[in-house]
Specification:
By secondary structure, the protein is of the alpha/beta class. The protein has 5 helices and 9 strands, in the order αββααβαββββαββ. The radius of gyration is 16 Å and the shape is globular. The model has no long low-confidence stretch (mean pLDDT 95).
Length: 176
């Protein structure tokens, strides 16, 4: 009996979608990985393992990061903070604008969600250009929290997104 790794499950189950969300972009669809219970467990466990004992709460970036953050929070007994698109959070927010490889966007967080100095493990599905995760780190720090580390399922190395996160512990389960 072979034992599958998270990387093996990701390679086996993820799908490549050309020209999504815009022409010229190759989208890596991880929803089949999330739909497979054993694969989701492998991904969750391997995402948080490098950061064991180093975080107080887990933040997920809208929307696929929510799946990862909730799964990891449940598995580790920690809470979840949601980093959202504008207009989704009901109380006072901090906002951060950033560029994507196919446009620009804004993220928001409730700054009163956690006590100052809380150590936040940031999770998302893909590290591409690094804009989304850099903006998320900025929000976390502006709220008075500490980025304990960043975990992603896929890193698209040809886009050099990790360079925008220099000086931070970034762990990817699969680098393409």
């Amino acid at each position: 009996m072979s034992i599958e790794t998270a990387g093996g499950a990701i390679e086996r189950l993820s799908r490549v979608v050309p020209d999504f969300p815009t022409p010229g972009i190759t989208f890596r669809d991880l929803t089949p990985v999330f739909a497979d219970g054993p694969a989701l467990r492998l991904v969750t466990d391997e995402l948080v393992e490098p950061f064991a004992g180093q975080f107080d709460v887990i933040a997920g970036v809208e929307a696929r990061g929510f799946v990862l953050a909730a799964s990891a929070a449940y598995a580790t007994g920690h809470g979840v903070v949601m980093i959202r698109k504008p207009g989704k959070l009901p109380r006072a927010v901090l906002s951060e604008d950033y560029d994507l490889e196919y446009g620009s966007a804004t993220l928001q967080v409730h700054p009163d969600e956690l006590p100052r100095g809380a150590r936040v493990l940031l999770l998302d599905d893909v590290l591409a250009t690094g804009g989304t995760l850099a903006a998320s780190c900025s929000l976390i720090e502006r709220a008075g929290w500490v980025v304990a580390g960043i975990g992603v399922v896929l890193e698209l190395t040809e886009l050099h997104g990790a360079e925008r996160l220099s000086g931070r512990q970034v762990e990817a389960l699969v680098a393409l």
